[in-house]
Write a structure and sequence with these properties.
- This protein has about 300 residues and is an alpha/beta fold.
- The protein has two domains: about 10-245, Transposase IS200-like (Alpha-Beta Plaits, 2-Layer Sandwich); about 250-305, no CATH class.
- It contains eight helices and nine strands.
- The protein has helices at about 30-45, 70-95, 120-130, 130-135, 190-215, 220-225, 250-280, 290-295; strands at about 10-20, 50-55, 60-65, 110-115, 160, 175, 245, 285, 300.
- The protein has a five-stranded mixed β-sheet with strand order 2-3-1-4-7, with helices on both faces. The protein has a two-stranded antiparallel ribbon with strand order 5-6.
- The longest helix is centred in the last third of the chain and has 28 residues, at about 250-280.
- The protein starts with 10 loop residues before the first strand and ends in a 13-residue tail after the last strand.
Length: about 300
Amino acid sequence: MSHPRRSVPGGTYLVTHTTVMSMFLLVPSKVVNQVMEYCIAWAARERGVLLHAISVESNHYHLVVTDLEGRLSEFIQEFQRTSARCLMQYYRAKFPSARLEGLWSGAGPFTDTLLVNAAAILDKLVYTFTNPVKDGLVRDYRQWPGFNTRPSHWRQGPRTIERPEFYFKHTPETLTYELTPPRQLGTDVERVIADVEGHIRREQAQIATNMRAQKRTFAGTKAVLRTSPLDSPDTPRPEGKLTPRLAAGGDAKSLAAAAAALKLFRIAYREAWKRFKELGEAVFPGGTLLMHKRFGVECEPLDAACWCELAT
């Protein structure tokens, strides 16, 4: 049975994925930062994806995006494909004796968590911005030398990134893209920026307090930049941890409603899959991606309101 991945047009997501064997293949450098920024801008073009927050750490990334057209999987597939091609070409030239088989972990697909209300969106924005702080790397997220964005970028309009020297040949020499605040948080951009920045300051202060209580210190940018891309964390990778498909920022009612919608989607998908196997045709529930893309199956319209309180 094909994986019933769904996408909610108008839904806002937290997306994350790790490198192969959690190697530090995304450790900050001029090349890596340029590659990641260009590939994200390239993948978002003409796919109806709004970029809100980006944080690229040494062995994983976090994105907060809104998927206007239900093409989130296409966006991530293109972003990861092109970034892998670029960085593998770069690292094979830099480390000719190293055996690098790929960039991204093949243990599972990327993680996409649907943020079903404004509280969840705010929570995951702060989580994304402060990720290098939470991991004990820098005291302030603005000190992170890798490619990450800030709420203040929402007021700055279009941004431009030059094409990397690796892999790309026939794409534009420069790409223009824009970072915008999620519209679920309001239309007053300055007010949204101030609100998110306030939450970031409080979160960073709490992390610093926890670090002192644990007698830990932040690694600092110099230590980060000395990291070898071929190394990986000393700590074992967590096992058995469930990947959340939905987040509601602590709102139990919203989470229950979205979970019920997800359950109904899966039931309808299984019934449509059974009919498709038997008859060669079926109408799949709205939001079906893989079957629609591969076989052109008909899909019911999707009411995003049953998934996201404030989706458009």
